[in-house]
Design goal:
Layout: E1 2-6, E2 11-12, E3 18-21, E4 30-31, E5 48-52, E6 60-63, E7 68-69, H1 75-83, H2 90-101, E8 107-108, E9 110-111, E10 128-129, H3 131-149, H4 157-161, H5 175-189, E11 204-206, E12 209-210, H6 221-227, H7 230-239, E13 247-249, H8 251-281, H9 293-314, H10 318-339, H11 341-347, H12 349-369, H13 375-384
Parallel strand pairs: 11-13
Antiparallel strand pairs: 1-2, 1-6, 3-4, 3-5, 7-8, 9-10, 11-12
The structure holds zinc ion (2 copies).
Amino acid sequence: MVQPYCASEQRYLADRYVEGTCPHCAFDGARGDQCDNCGRTLDPKDLQGMTCRICGGTPEFRETEHFFLKLSAFEDQLLDWVRKQDHWRPNVRNFTIGYLEGGLHDRAITRDIEWGVPIPLDGYEDKRLYVWFEAVIGYLSASIEWAHNNGTPEAWKPFWEDGSRAYYFMGKDNIPFHTVIWPAMLLGYGGLNLPYDVPANEYLNLEGFKLSTSRNWAVWLPDYLDRYEPDPLRYVIAANLPETSDSDFSWREYVRRNNDELVATYGNLVHRVLSMVSRNFDSVLPDPGELDEVSGALLAEAQRRFDETEAYLEAVRLRQALQSSMALAQTANRYLDQKEPWRAVRSDKADAAQTLWTAVSVINCLKTTLYPFLPFSSQKLHTMLG
Ligand SMILES: [Zn+2]
Ligand SMILES: [Zn+2]
């Protein structure tokens, strides 16, 4: 095959060291392996107006010998498989089908570079497996290494051989590596589970601009954690996840969601119920007696929301899972406003007891459904509830 070669540096250029115009979308910052604008994987020879990213010169192409992954052999099998994945996010499934319908070309999996995983064959000491090929194997090899290190060398197998459901979390620029290339490698090897779901996210921007660590346009977690608790950030990001389209993180939205939702809706519910139990019932949950209609209805609603959250989490609809819990917290607040236990505690203590017992049951449910989003607060609440 031919590979880009920079005469001034006297070296072959790895895909990321060449840049040019994408032949599919005309984006002019496409790299030799992928276009960040349209997400398509590329070969260096596809680029128009290719330049060397090290010296800015124009590379030449030289002949060199490489190993290939015969991707073309998997085209039909992959299309059959992807078309059946009705539970995938539409953007992931549609992107993959379009990608496969465009035809698969065999791709070189080695490069003339000094770093990386060596080729386990004599005579190829100056070549390496290229990163897009070997990185995804890490999912499997890390499982096997983990099993070995634990003294249970077979323990990786249930995750890979018995129809376990493997979820691959990533950003949208990584979709083809996990819905085409890695599945092709798994099919070629045989006997291992293909991905069950690839819930790739779109992009999250920061205050209207693309995040960039090199330009310091980022929220650095150590800085954040010096000032604030982890849970509000987890909450705001989960509530605003770019599951189906790009979304934006802003500090104004952080403050609003923390104050109006976490504190006003959830925190307030927990605070007023637990302090009433503490003040009026000596911190012992009172006997509820026979539940009236509105208390029974609230408990049934909690059970429904609990089941719904489980289904949403399994389907990786995380925003909806979170919304479901917050809606339950709102319902519980309305229940308290209707039942007015702070008044009933003086006029009808049994009714106040039932209201608080029911509200604590709902809080106990929320503690569980919100645990994936607010693990630190949930643990604190769990301790408070005894
Ligand atoms: Zn493009
Ligand atoms: Zn150069």
